Amino acid sequence: MTEHHHHAHSHNHTDGAHGHSHSHGSGKTLVFALIFTTAFALVEVFAGVMANSLALLSDAGHMFTDSLSLAVGAFSAWLANKPASRQHSFGLQRAEVLGALFNVIFMFLVIAYIAYEAVLRMLDTPEVNGVTVLVVGTLGLLVNIIVAWVLMRGEQNMNVRGALLHVMGDLLGSVAAVAAGAIIYYGGPAIMDPILSLFVCLLILVSAVRLLRAVTRVLMEGVPQGVDAAQVSDALTQIDGVRAVHDLHIWSLSSNSHALAAHVDLDNMSLWQATLPQMQIILRERFGIAHSTLQPEDSAMGQGCAVEVGCGARSRHYEDASGPKQHV
């Protein structure tokens, strides 16, 4: 006997429009922070060369990585306003992930260069102008405080939180530069400059590894950080009429956009119209999953239908397991 599957697709633009307005607001905040951070990083490079301070140069390198992080966030916020197309049905959300991957590679190169220079300077320590390092390092600390304050007052999304994490790490880098300047100014050994530079390298390395893990998770279609698949399944099966959830897949489209696909066993297919909205609310509000494809199945009848939540008008088609789809 030929088995028939009944599929119904429903989509919703509301979440997307809402997300676009947020991206636009966060984009302005990130652009301001980007310009401010990059400008001072250039000042630190100039001062680091003039003072012959690796601590300042390494802190400038850290600030440049922050600038890249801010640039990625601003660019991805701009791309988030671009509508989906036939070629890119999910839009260009993954551009954020690719930009982050570039950011990680750049950060590793910065770490390698600073560590190499630090080792050379520990073997042959040059004279360092402690006053310049102290003054510029203090200014850098103030710049980081201002940027962090601006980001905390802006629209809070994953891009902004990620950029804020980098800036807070750079605060520690600025503290290291100030410490090196103060130690040298008060007669301490100049070797503290490359030693504290290695400390800044460690800060950058921690941020780079964390970002690389997050990027890899998205690119490998892993379950999003902070989302437990078992908890999602349990939450859905607690709804009246839902017998079980299986073939559950959860992945990330970008750092702040997650998707889910699953089969849902129902006690009675007539319950589906009431059950679907409950599942959507749980997925969206408890787990941050706005795009879901759910296929209800009646095990007793051996029939099912799929409902996709996320995009536009409703279409309906029937599919024969032994033949092509018939659109109605």
Automatic annotation (TrEMBL):
The primary location reported for this protein is membrane
* Domain Cation efflux protein cytoplasmic residue range list: 225-297
Domain Cation efflux protein transmembrane residues, every copy: 31-220
Give compartment(s): Membrane
**What is this entry's stated membrane topology?**
Multi-pass membrane protein
Basic residues compositional bias: what residue ranges? 1-11
Record keyword Magnesium present: no
Region annotation Disordered: where it falls in the sequence: 1-22
State which residue ranges cross the membrane.
30-51, 63-81, 97-116, 128-151, 163-188, 194-212
One Pfam family from the UniProt entry? ZT_dimer
At the top level of its lineage, which domain of life is listed?
A: Bacteria
Query: Which SUPFAM superfamilies does its entry note?
Result: Cation efflux protein cytoplasmic domain-like, Cation efflux protein transmembrane domain-like
Which keywords fit this entry according to its UniProt record? Ion transport, Membrane, Transmembrane, Transmembrane helix, Transport, Zinc, Zinc transport
Which family is this protein grouped under?
Belongs to the cation diffusion facilitator (CDF) transporter (TC 2.A.4) family. SLC30A subfamily.
What is the protein name stated in its UniProt record? Cation diffusion facilitator family transporter
Q: Which organism is it from?
A: Halopseudomonas sabulinigri
